[in-house]
Amino acid sequence: MSKSRTMRRLLLLLLGLWEAQSRAPSRPNFVLIVADDLGIGDPGCYGNKTLRTPNIDRLAEEGVKLTQHLAASPLCTPSRAAFMTGRYPVRSGMASQTRIGVFLFSASSGGLPNTEVTFARLLKDQGYATALIGKWHLGTHCHNNTDFCHHPSSHGFDYFHGLPVTNLRDCKPGAGSVFTQAVRVLVLAPLQALALALVTLGALRWLGLLPVPGVVFLVLLLLAAALLGLLLCFLHFFRPLNCFLMRGRAVSQQPLSYDNLTQRLTADAARFIRRNAERPFLLVFSCIQVHTALYASKDFAGKSKHGAYGDAAEEMDWGVGQLLNVLEELQLTNNTLVYFTSDQGAHVEEVTPKGERHGGSNGIFKGGKGNNWEGGIRVPGLLRWPGVLPAGVEIAEPTSNMDVFPTVAKLAGSPLPEDRIIDGRDLMPLLRGETQRSEHEFLFHYCNFYLNAVRWHPPNSSSVWKAFLFTPNFAPEGANGCFPTHVCFCHGHFVTRHHPPLLFDLSRDPRERRPVTPGAEPRFWEILEAMQEAAERHARTVVPVPNQLSVGRILWKPWLQMCCSSSPGLSCQCPRGEQD
Ligand SMILES: *[C@@H]1O[C@H](CO)[C@@H](O)[C@H](O)[C@H]1NC(C)=O
Ligand SMILES: *[C@@H]1O[C@H](CO)[C@@H](O)[C@H](O)[C@H]1NC(C)=O
Ligand SMILES: *[C@@H]1O[C@H](CO)[C@@H](O)[C@H](O)[C@H]1NC(C)=O
Ligand SMILES: *[C@@H]1O[C@H](CO)[C@@H](O)[C@H](O)[C@H]1NC(C)=O
Ligand SMILES: *[C@@H]1O[C@H](CO)[C@@H](O)[C@H](O)[C@H]1NC(C)=O
């Protein structure tokens, strides 16, 4: 009797231990979903009443909703570099000193350097199966088109399927052009100058005022022809050369087809989860949408209340739901941390020539993609892990997309690299309610290479101060963005510098409407001084590195071009698009 009782006790104890073990937050799977250019005003759980995002909203209901989640940069390439490495983009050289802050060509030599460590590499070393499906935008090659030095496969991803560069209007026939339009403008001006020079010289010669040798005319004519040829080639070949899908290191569809693209990538992501259901995995699902060119399949086209943008966003939400369903079906829900964010705020200036809005909503916040007003950097941040993270909780503390790096590394049992500064902070104590304070007392907001603003959340205070060293010159007057240039630039006559810095208290003025004045805030100078000291301390930790977005590294280099080689000549197309 007593013996069987002891046995039962022992069994219960063992069962209890086993249960506790299985409940412990150890080595979960990770599904990290990054939308492109989705605004914080778009998902229903952030207050949108007309755009339907039931699946994204489900993450908020079943997990934690961050309301001051910040992208490390308001632009794709630097924001993604920071996300992958947990470090400010200036540390990896992924912050441009020119006007162009992102990669535009598949055959550029810049990219995330191999000296950087991504969370994918850490997790791969811990035995995780790792995949990136969707957009990469962090470079491909360095020296030749077989080195793949910047490719996802060189940064810890076992599997890659998607766009090496980015989705652009220019990639979709009939969707208009943004980039090729800009290039046309760039080439047309020198062409006009050349034509003018030719006519003037001709006239002078005809009048006998200047004996211009014929060879000068010939050279000018050849130059003009070359420029014109270049322009025509560029416009004609941009799409096949830059808009293609890869599977692993091979080109799989060139140019890419938008037919059912969201479905195809979602289905592939679901297959990756199924293949790895029995082992720990990391899936970065990096949505192509809702960056222009917008697209939606038959089931979604014309169904939303917000035109092509709404259709694409709702279809993306459907994709999120598909992945959640697969996790549920495989009973992986309680063992998987799902994260949802956007790489930056909505692109306010994305308006079609016909006046249709193709950019999303940043809710109450000012500005958007490309600038550091809250609308450019405050992004959705949702984390769900049933049983470990509370459900339906909202956290307003400042957090960053760089925090994913140390959070994921720690949960996977990986030590952090010790030879470098990691700017992200482990999110778990905040998410689990073990602390009420973010570890980010200061955050630094860069516009490309340039420190643009400092955020300070002082200890023992609910204030969140934000000081701008400069602000972009919105145009036209009174607009909420930089419409003539399509995106705001970060230096020169495109910005206004502020001495003293323009100070806001986001806790009282989240819309950044009323700068704090010395008269209204007695601690004005004291606050600015604390922020300046922090900025100086931070600046001392930034080591100069080669700039990956220099003109030389973002140019198109023919020898780095990837092509389906099966068709002869310059056409650079796969004979048959992939079917999946
Ligand atoms: C490409 O570059 C890599 C690294 O620089 C080198 O090892 C490789 O031999 C090169 N391949 C070709 C075909 O030149
Ligand atoms: C897209 O998917 C739908 C439904 O699955 C299918 O009927 C259609 O043929 C697909 N379109 C293309 C171009 O693959
Ligand atoms: C909801 O999203 C749509 C699409 O971005 C936008 O037009 C609309 O203004 C948003 N509504 C709110 C309340 O933010
Ligand atoms: C998953 O976790 C939730 C929350 O703790 C719990 O209610 C549910 O029963 C768990 N499901 C499974 C299959 O263990
Ligand atoms: C913040 O509050 C704690 C406890 O209330 C106190 O020990 C600490 O000195 C305070 N720090 C500052 C900077 O005021």
Automatic annotation (TrEMBL):
Keywords in UniProt for this one? Calcium, Hydrolase, Membrane, Metal-binding, Signal, Transmembrane, Transmembrane helix
Concerning its family, UniProt says:
Belongs to the sulfatase family.
Residues in the signal sequence: 1-22
SUPFAM superfamilies linked: Alkaline phosphatase-like
The cofactor named in the record is: Ca(2+)
One MF annotation (Gene Ontology) recorded for this entry? metal ion binding
- Tell me the organism: Myotis myotis (Greater mouse-eared bat)
Sulfatase N-terminal domain location is 28-413
Q: What is this protein called?
A: Steroid sulfatase
Q: What residue ranges are annotated as transmembrane? A: 185-208, 215-238
- Which GO terms of the cellular component aspect does the record hold? endoplasmic reticulum
